[in-house]
Fold this protein.
Amino acid sequence: ESKSSRSKNLLRTCTQVGDNTNPQFSILSWDKQIFGKISAGDIVLMQ
């Protein structure tokens, strides 16, 4: 999903993830480089 703000294009990425407490939830990022490097089975630490 893309969104424009003051003639600057932003890309919002929504990714489905899960852990041992919740099998599936969504996380959002405005940085496309982060999610371009993630593959199924990767462990991602979010703060």
User: Anything to note?
Assistant: Strands lie at 2-5, 8-11, 13-17, 25-29. Residues 2-36 form one domain.
